[in-house]
Structure formats: structure tokens, C-alpha cells
Amino acid sequence: MEDEGLLISQVRAAAADDLELLASLHDREIDVEALARLRASAFPRGLGLNPPASQWQDVMTVMERAFEAMEGSENEILTDLAAGYADVYLTHAMGVAPTESPWVDPDGLERQTTMAECRKWYGKYDLKVQNGLRPDDHLAYQLNFLGYLVGKTDQKETIGDAQRFLMYHLLNWVPKFAERLEQRRGPAFYSALAAVTACYLMELAPVLGAISGEVIAQPVVEVGDPEEASMRDGGCRGCYA
To answer: In angstroms, rounded to a whole number, what is the distance separating the alpha carbons of residues 177 and 53?
Structure first.
């Protein structure tokens, strides 16, 4: 039992680190240091919790191709990545919302019910989004919060909450977010990142279920049309108070 507890702690720590990394990549433009770390770890192969699914191999290949397509000097690559980040997360150029509300709201509106639900989730753990310029149900915030729950091993209930938050929120829209970016031929790196994130979350769900011992069904959600969503953005550094 002691060995099993140690293994579970190691799995949770690895997943928490992975989610923190994914959150940071969706949160802000990549700088020189972040790009070097990604290349050195052959991202996403260097993630601590490596899902053993054939689909995971597919998304790793997509990411590898995105890295191979990066041409020019380091400054030129970073400039291209910054432009790609802006297209997806800042200017709404791709018409693909990086927040949950537009995907599940019948009218595709931003800052709707799911934002309030996320705020309640964060509040349960005395957390609060610091930057009000970006909705509470932004992908970076949700990934950060999920990582917080997964890594918080001093409270038994948090793993069940992590499983519920994943099933009730992230898995309701992130796969669609990734699919839409691919359909619209979004920036190569960020399209690949969305695919990696969606696949990782889908493979994480049964892991959390095995740890918690709970069977939690994903609710049926009618996906909205996020075309009219506002893309005003802030930042996620120091997300929570």
C-alpha cells in the first residue's frame, strides 16, 4: 500500500507539472528560454505523464512537423510564433475562442454561465483570477486550476474535484477547440499544441478515475457557435490571488 501511495503521488506530481507547462504555453507568447526548453525535451515527448495511446503518437508527429517547419533565425521564428499566438488568442483572426463559454453557450457568447461556474470552482479553494481582462474560463486558467487540484495531495477530495472539473469543463470544449484550429489551418505550432492538449486531457481522465475510484460521466453539452466571441486578452502570470 505504501508503494502504491508513492506511485500515485508521483503520477499526480508529473501530471501537475505537465498541466502547468501546457497552461503556460496557452497563456503567453513563447520566449527564447521556453523555445529552447521545448526543443531540448522534444516536446511533447518530455512530458512526465506520457499517454500510451496511438492517437498520442499522431499528435506527437504533428508537433514534430511544426518544429521542423520553423525556419529562419531565432528572432524570425519567435516573431512568427508571436504572430501565431496573436491570431489564436488575441485578435480572433482564426475565429476559434480559447475560452469555454462560446463553445457551450447557445448563442456563442463570451463570459456566460461557465465563467461563473469556474469562478465558483476557484473560490472553493480560495483562489481568484487576478487579471480581470480575460474571462475566468480561459484555457490557461482552467489548465492551471486542474494542475493545482491534481498536485494538491494533502487533500483527498481534490482528486475527485480534479476529475469533475476535467469532465464538466475542459473536455466539453478543448477537443472542439483543437479540431476547429486544425480545420481552419491555424498556426502550425498552436494547432499542434491544441491537439496535444486535447489528447493529453482525454488520456488523463481515466488516470484520475483510477486514482479517485469514481466513475464520472461527461455531461452532454450542445456545442455553441463561438464565431462572435470577444478575444480581449490579459495574461495568466500570477493567475490567482
So the answer is: 20
Listing DSSP states for the chain in one string gives: -HHHHHHHHHHHHHHHHHHHHHHHHHHS---HHHHHHHHHTTTTTT-SS----HHHHHHHHHHHHHHHT--S-HHHHHHHHHHHHIIIIIS-TT---SBSHHHHSTT--SSSHHHHHHHHHHHHTT--BS-TTS-TTBHHHHHHHHHHHHH-TT-THHHHHHHHHIIIIIHHHHHHHHHHHHHTT--HHHHHHHHHHHHHHHHHHHHHHHHH----PPPP-----GGG--------TT-B-
**Residue 164 CA to its chain's centroid (Å):** 15
CA distances from 195 to 2, 3, 75, 182 (A): 36, 34, 26, 8
Cell of 125: 479553494
For the whole model, what pTM was predicted? 0.89
Half-sphere exposure of 116 (CA within 13 A, CB side): 3
* pLDDT, tens digit (0-9, with 9 covering 90-100), for 130-180: 877 899 999 999 999 999 999 987 777 899 999 999 999 999 999 999 999
